[in-house]
Amino acid sequence: MLKIKFCLVVICSLWVCNAFAQDQLKESKYLFFIEPELMLGQTVANYNDFPDTKPVKSFFLSVGIKDTRNIHSSKYYNHPTTGVNLSYSNLGNDSILGKSFGVMPFIQFYPWGNRQKRWSLKFGVGGSYFTKSYRQSNQNLAIGSHLTWSFQAFLYRELFALNRMQFRMGAGYLHSSNGHTQLPNMGLNSAQVSLSCQWTSRPLISKKKDIYLGANMGLNRRYFINVRSGIGVHEYGGKSKPVGRW
Description:
Layout: H1 2-28, E1 31-44, E2 56-66, H2 72-76, E3 81-90, E4 99-109, E5 119-130, E6 147-162, E7 165-177, E8 188-200, E9 205-206, E10 211-212
Antiparallel strand pairs: 1-2, 1-8, 2-3, 3-4, 4-5, 5-6, 6-7, 7-8, 9-10
């Protein structure tokens, strides 16, 4: 009789562990997405004799995941989104500035944790290839080499969602520079607005809990200030020519 009870306890324990593991597995699944995005804006003149430009037209294709796992690190950051942007931009003056193609990893946060507003911030750092540089046109002081670093900072607002599709509008800032590795390098800046449609691997709305998977949060937070310092070597170089010395 004791053996039968022991076997029953073991079977029940295994069943509970298996059910718990399956629930955890379901909760740990990521939400995959793909998002085409159209942008329109204007380059920002940052030096004298900056060439005249028409509106900048860009197309971004983003692929990535939404972290919907029910773990502390994911909840603390309001289930962030990470992925990679593939981009193409017509810079408004093909003969001088040319066009650019980019690859940029990004992370997107929902810092306010308010599912009614559904605002988000997106930051990306990557690289771009420019078809025209200073070597092809001496009027192009913005880009000194074909390969540059690129930076993106955007604010997004969800317009509405339909099952697996989320329509959004955004506005932000794009910057490209080679870090003065080849001069002149004034850098190219543009302010743009965007419209996008994000398609996800499963619905954004949970019918059981009726929550929005992108911005649901109820954790307490503690704020802090972090101060950092460092020491290093800097080469004194201007944006258009070398200046000073080591």
